[in-house]
Amino acid sequence: MGMLLLNPSAIRKTVVLLVLLPLFFLSPVYAADAFANCGGCHHDTVENIKQTHIVHAPFTRGDCSQCHLVGREAAPEAKKPGLLREVKQREKIAWFREVHGMDSEHWLLIPESQVDREIYLKIWDGINRPPLKALTLPPLKRLKEPKKEQQPPVISDVVVTEVRRGINTSATIRWQTDEFTNAEILYGRQGLTSSTFDKKLTRQHQAVLGGLEKNTGYQVQIVCRDIHGNQAKSAIFNFKTDKTFIEPAERRVSNRFAGQEISLEWEFHRLQNSYLIVFKSDRAMSLSYGVERKAGGETARKTKQPLAATGGGHPLLKSQLDTNITLCYSCHGGFKGANSHPVNVLPNPGMKIPAEYPLLADGRLSCMSCHVNHGGNYAYRLIKQTKKELCLGCHPNY
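RE: above sequence
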């Protein structure tokens, strides 16, 4: 039997080589012309980011426009191979906000500027999930507006169904209305000082209030408006976050529908410059809609933004809110609500935010308050080396 003998010095050199060699292959590779458009004016910034260990994926492609230029959409998030069949079907569709809740009737209010001539529907009754369906829209100008009504909606069955504690404390509130309305939720510890708005039209409402304080009492009032502007307000009610609880969800689908095709009918209406589409089914179901995504990530009615009107200026840039929050959700949509730290909110009164945790211009928290925007040296591009150290920066008693 042969044996290879190495002296200690050779062993140390071999170990160092084995440790360092993979780093050369893991480092991002940049094309020679990757930053041809931006690198001239922002050369120092680009070179500094290239020296970091963990770099934002669009930056490695030199695609600054994806996140910064008006008219560009974020590319779809890469999916796992196990979901490849589903991804192929969804990659061509830009899904808009999902219609929550199970109901036998759904109303969609879609601005004409948001769609071309066709929308895609994704429906589910809790058992059956049929293939995607395409629905061709008629010209908006040919549609009639629904008959005006002056009867205000009725709000009922308001209940706090959950209080959870994770990274933050959150509460889930559910209620019903006797007609399809949007909803505004006013809440606060001492007075109704905060609010959240849900423009979705529904009769089965749900709102998650995040960023709450534990062991604290809150006041809440619900305001609902129908498509004619008629408004209803609930009485102000109180709840506390001293105890956590989860109310089991009620299963509302009968097994008698198993294997049966979902029957779906629809009506088209016009509401100013928007389509109002009323869907009716033979059973309770959830419904979502989307439009075809064009090459380069653009949706059907969106076009690329040209250079400034003078013909040679800098392209229009997205707002700070877009680049620090909205765009993040386009690829990381799973990190919302109770699954992540609250963003787009002001810090709690009296809380001191260190200068190294950047805030938006008006003082609100964003994703970039905790993450480095282009490239960093810590996991997840955090501004601190560990998650605990990150939290202790603003929550010293955490």
